[in-house]
Amino acid sequence: METQTIENKEIATKVTEKISGSEAIVRCLIAEGVKIIYGYPGGAIMPVYDELYKYQDKIHHVLARHEQGATHAAQGFARISGKVGVAIATSGPGATNLVTGIADAQIDSTPMVCITGQVASHLLGSDAFQETDIVGISTPVTKWNCQVTRAADIPAVLAKAFYIAKSGRPGPVLVDITKDAQFEDFDFSYEKCTKIRSYVPIPKTVIGSLEAAAKLINTAKKPFIVWGQGIVLSQAEEQFKALVEKAGIPAAWTILGASALPTSHPLNVGMLGMHGNYAPNKLTNECDVLIAIGMRFDDRVTGKLDEYATQAKVIHFEIDPAEVDKNVKTDVAVLGDAKVTLEAILPLIDENSHEEWHQQFKNLYEIEYEKVIKGDLYPTKEGLTMGEVIKEINIQSKGDAAIVTDVGQHQMIACRYAEFNKTKSNITSGGLGTMGFGLPAAIGAKMAAPEREVVSISGDGGYQMTIQELGTIFQQKAAVKIVVLNNDFLGMVRQWQQMFFEKRYASTEMVNPNFVAIAEGYYIKAKKVTKREELAAAVAEMMASKEAYFLEVCVEKEGNVFPMVPSGASVSEIRLE
Amino acid sequence: MNTEKQLYTISVYTENNIGLLNRISAIFQRRHINIESLNISPSEIEGIAKFIIVVNMTEVNVKKIIGQIEKQVEVIKAYFHNLEEIIYQISGLFKIKSELLFEERQIQNIIKESNARIVTVNKEFFVLEKSGKKEEIAELYNQLSVYGIMQYTRSGLIAVTKEAMKISELLKY
Asked: Burial code of A392-407, b = ≥16 C-beta within 10 A, e = fewer?
């Protein structure tokens, strides 16, 4: 292979040089610092794969087992590293298979660049073999997209793509490149993009808004912070912690914001939303100043909007002006990057402790503990609970693992009970709720942060949506720890059927395969646990494994996730049973 | 804030770009908002296009739409105005049988009174053009339809605003 690789060569340079469009694509990726990409080859992208073969010492291409898996792996990579994830696919079905991951990245603000091959430009619009209008299809779910039909446009478009994907509020970008543009030779030079005149990634902070926000915070009797992924995306964890501690304000998180402040922090009062904690939901409607930071008031967080924090003055720290007043009317909007605005507001904030107010959170926590948490974490009846599995993982990982979840009951339980010491430790599909996200996302996360313990937790439903990525784990020797919490049901839908559809379990019962045999078929060590007394040892064996490890835990079949804010109800109407 | 629906023009200054129309119209489609009219033309600044979109919406919702339009990478700026804040024109074209021009004397009066312009006349038909407000064009349509209209079409609304739109300054950054 050595003869094929290019050693000690200036990869990207301002000096022009005649190369093909496909080589240019690879050279652009290298110039952007990309070392790992996820993808799947096919006809219209073959010239690029040929170049990847030559440059394999510079860029490691991870062959997924389905293009959707490639996007989720790129997302997992991006979420744990803060860098742009890259996915690559061929035209037609290759491209359309990317769409779910792109939509997921869009709604969860994940920086990702997708490159698709396209039929030759003279065939565009002719319903050619594997032609699909991927630019048209991906428009509503991308931050930006573009079709390239000339090799000469490749460097500038890819430079723009990386800049747009990672700047401001991050998001997915798709670049579709015709096969003739990949073959065409041109004079290559690469310059990073740092500015687009029509694009304002970070809005200016309105003069006086910091002071107005500080005044509200300083005079508040019952201030309450709700934070989201914005803290993580702007790497504002330190500034955020300083604010929370100085002002002594109880703070709760959306699931994408989880882990930005350690779970054990005394002012971290838990999770917001439909299956969040009791106190932060209840007290949203009792606070006098609601301080939202880097979050977007998703309906799963707010419940019924007409009865959401109507008593409170609302401050919104936000990078995306379109989010201000979109769902909740704001009194003070602090536009800008959270790291910058939080740092700027800190000197204006008075020290405080709000002990009585904080005590209200503790009191409600006690109620939740008695009614819900105790039974979830320390069950006495037969049948394993999802909660006790998470608790065991907490104990054995000491809260240092990155937890990658799929979508459903196990996700809510994992987010509720996982302990996080470090930021960027909770990787999940929040906005889109993409079943099948977890396993491939864990691959990307492990490859981006090999030094970290990465535990993928899925349900038996979502796991089977992308189960083929076990092949990727095996081929890449990715040491992902895979936990499937198996209740032989599509649990969350079943819970709704039980609560709202009089137990008519329409198509939610799963007749499952031998999961251990499947994992072993991919040469992954595997174990199944059905009894409480086996759990700790099995988790220990999994955590001790240097390689990938699969652990199936059979949990109670009809366990429910509580508390719950029923769909369309106010956060005050949160139910404990 | 006004919660009644009313007609607004949304003026969007953009880079010229294939696919941007798709991106912008998708924002309306997602929220199930009917676009009453749409016009895309060059603007006062070279290389910058201007969309004028007419919608019937509440002020609260039009503001949300503006935010989502401005978020698009190639959009420079979007504004919204109600009809009192703009100077606008709509153009209508009417194709009518030429014989009517001579047989129906009343038609000549209608043309004169409505300030419509005859664009072309030949043996078979003549074409009338009328610019103005929507009601004025509708009025002319009603008057002419009595005699029979061979073809009729109306343009989208185009407008300039009473207040300044400082696009050039935005582009300096």
From this structure: bbbebbebebbbbbbb
